[in-house]
Amino acid sequence: MTSTQRPGSTGAAAGRRTVRASIAAVAAFSAAFGLAACNRSSSSDTGGSSGGQKTVGVALITKDSTNPFFVAMQKGAKADASKNNVKLTVASGKQEGDDQGQITAIEDSIARGDKGILITPMSTGVNAAIKKARDAGLYVIALDTPPDPANTVDITFATDNREAGKLDGQWAAATMAGKPAVIALLDLFNDKIVSVDYNRDQGFLEGMGIPVNDPKKNGDEAKTGKYTGGKGGDYTIVCNEAGNGAEDGGRTAMEKCLAKNPNINLVYTINEPTAVGANAALKAAGKTATIVSVDGGCAGVASVKSGVIGATAQQYPLKMATLGMEAIAQVARGGAKPTPDPGLDFKNTGVALVTDKPVDGVKSIDSAKGAELCWGN
């Protein structure tokens, strides 16, 4: 959430893709890996117990082990490991921002002699450890959060986070219907630069039709002006506050924003736990606002259905983990290396906007469909 990530070109390419095309591409990619897995059963590799395949050691290192998004990744990878004859080790930081926890897990993977690592990189603080792993011969795939720069890893399997933010912004602009937008931006960090953070935030602004300055920096856009999405109108950005991707952080961040301006009517949130926290703060203050978010977990989709979240961009962590693990196993057994999708510098695992209040010109699915595709509890 990347050479150096090209947010501008990524956003333009994403804008041309439909949700249907994204999902079709993911299905085709899954089929291709399934075929490759079948072909591997005739491999002459030895040392494993599955069809003559050698056992491949893989480490899955997530940011934490409590966020439903990362729990879904872990469960999906564990369920898929045996059929690919992968010896999977799961590790994580203690919480968002724990660079050292991930660094230790990377060093442990090298020491075990793993063939590859799947990682949702915490920040640029883990780049040196990733380089050490690659220098030791491990194939490293980033999941969900493309590192900066992108070539820190061999490849990234991720949601197009710029597109996810843009879908939220396009929907929000249309929903505002020309009314003044008084906006709170609840980001991930204020002390770390993470691509998933700025891509979602800046994508949201682009979707709203609000000019951004540095596309890889949050908070440097003009605080007042005109948004051109939907029918267009005036906007005021009240705050950029960090919620650390957590419900309690979202509530605290929203409280700070309301203290600056109690008339906030539009809230962008980095993820759904942050959105739930923001809603709690609004409710406690006797306020209401339109909230948009990213993730598409089952709890988040339920929040769309109940009206807490107006729209959320759904991503597919299980696909990231299982396809990434299969790719490492394939490479370790002498197969082809995965390549980025055309026009991108990562493998796109798809995104769909979930809302029960569709607007013209923005493709979406409803919460019933979102519930069929969601992950977590």
Number of domains: 2
What's the number of helices?
12
CATH fold-type name of the largest domain: Rossmann fold
Report the β-strand fraction as a percent range: 15-25%
CATH domain class of the largest domain:
Alpha Beta
Which structural class fits the helix and strand makeup? alpha/beta
Succession of helices and strands:
HHEHEHEHEEHEHEEHEHEHEHEEH
Mean pLDDT: 87
Unreliable residue stretches = 1-51
> If classified by CATH, what would the architecture of the largest domain be?
3-Layer(aba) Sandwich
Walk across the major sheet and give the strand order: 7-8-6-9-10-11-13
Task: Name the shape in a single word.
Answer: elongated
Main sheet attributes: strand count, strand direction, barrel closure: 7 strands, mixed
How would you describe what is shown here?
Residues 58-334 form the Periplasmic binding protein domain. This is Fructose transport system substrate-binding protein. It is a single chain. The protein has 377 residues and is α/β, with parallel strands linked by helices. It folds into two domains: 41-159 and 317-338, 3-Layer(aba) Sandwich (Rossmann fold), CATH 3.40.50.2300; 161-314 and 360-372, Response regulator (Rossmann fold, 3-Layer(aba) Sandwich), CATH 3.40.50. The chain has twelve helices and 13 strands. The protein has helices at 7-16, 19-40, 68-81, 99-112, 127-135, 161-176, 195-208, 247-260, 272-284, 298-306, 317-332, 367-373, and strands at 56-62, 86-92, 116-119, 139-143, 155-158, 181-187, 224-227, 233-242, 266-269, 290-295, 311-314, 347-348, 352-354. Strands 7-8-6-9-10-11-13 form a seven-stranded mixed beta sheet, with helices on both faces. Strand 3, helix 5 and strand 4 form a beta-alpha-beta unit. The longest helix has 22 residues, at 19-40. It is elongated and about 60 Å long.
